[in-house]
Amino acid sequence: MSDIYNLLGLCRRANQLIFGEPLFKALRSHKVKLIVISKDASKRTEKQLLNKCAYYKVPYIYVDDSNMLSHAIGKNNIKSLGITDDGFAQRMIIIDRNEVG
Q1: Contact at 8 Å (CB) between 99 and 15?
Q2: Which residues fall within 8 angstroms of residue 100, CB to CB, at 6 or more apart?
């Protein structure tokens, strides 16, 4: 899982992350290539994001802890975020699949 957090740090430095309220607007405009959701996000947030992901056909992955997610990008209290770069998104999906399977 640390590889995903390292990539999130690189995404942050490359300005390829969206979080907070602009995330939903970016989803609607098809700028987001991958959604990262913390397992301790609220059920409401998770449901909203999963519905948007299904509607706009955006893949998503889960990470274990919002504290680690927040620390990886240098922000506080981040439960979900979007990756806007195709390369970073594909690499995170590959890493997630390798860790799960």
Answers
A1: no
A2: none
Write the pLDDT tens digit of every residue in 50-84: 999 999 999 999 998 899 999 999 999 999 999 99
Q: In whole angstroms, what is the distance from residue 98 CA to residue 43 CA?
A: 26
Relative to beta strand 34-38, strand 60-63 is parallel
Could you give phi then psi for residue 64, rounded to 5 degrees? -70, -40
Find the length of the chain: 101
Q: How are beta strands 17-19 and 34-38 bridged, if at all?
A: unpaired
The answer to whether 90 touches 46, Cβ cutoff 8 Å, is no
Structure tokens at 8: 């999130």
Q: Helix (H, G, I), strand (E, B), or coil: what is residue 68? A: helix
DSSP H or E run through 72:
helix 66-73
- Distance from C-alpha of 55 to C-alpha of 85, rounded to nearest angstrom: 20
